[in-house]
Amino acid sequence: MKSNFTARKQSSIINLRTFHNWTKRELLNQTCSTLISETDQPITLLDLSCGKGGDMNKWYDNKIMHVVGFDIDSASIDEGRSRYAQLINNLKRKNVKQLPVYEFYVMDLSDSNNLVKIAKVLHNKKFNIVSCQFAIHYFFKNENSLMTFMTIVNTYINTPGFFIATTVDGLSVVEKLHNKSSIGNSIYSIEKKYNEPILSPYGNTYLVGLGEESDTEHYFANKKSEEYIVDIEELKNICSKMNLLYIGSIDFETWYKSFGKNIMSQN
Q1: Domain range spanning residue 77?
Q2: Residue 3 above 60 pLDDT?
Q3: What pLDDT sits at residue 219?
Q4: Closest CA to 238 of 158, 119, 136, 166
């Protein structure tokens, strides 16, 4: 039986994951640097759709000592808690005195009925950074889902504060799938499930496969992920209604040029 490390090394998308992790780290580094220049208060972070807590080392390396993470998947939250316990044990062995407090909770952030539950967890806490990495597309299922999500962002973001996210470029997907049922290669596939022309910014479903079927460590190689087109203009409209200033976005191609390493295949 292969170890997880060996499986990842042999994954067809290991270099993509390396680049994505660098991008998330750089985005967080830049955000923290900006906050440090604007406030002398400790930086706190709210992670919406935190998954398994895979960004934990990025938090700690940026001296973020308090993080709350929510995710709909209980197994991912269990692993996040386990990773946190391991981090604490490692720090204690090094005689580190100031230990981070990272909390993880199971929560469906698209359900407006859970706003009360979230309030009971967070109380009146405010966070300098609200983060959603590779997950905001799930909240474009319908208007209520996205409004609930953005209400959470708006309620718990501090001043100064930043909402940061990474996502598939919805407009690019629409353009590439125009008059086609699917696109892809040996590494990925995107299958269109929405109808053209698009009449609403919500509910435009597509299926994503990522990784080769032979991968023992993969995302959606054998089971495709159902996602929704991210309409940046709609997101900007909601931000405006909530008095959140939309700063802008940077495409992954630009990030890759900054990455400075040509590690990925053309596929």
Answers
A1: 4-168+231-259
A2: no
A3: 63
A4: 136
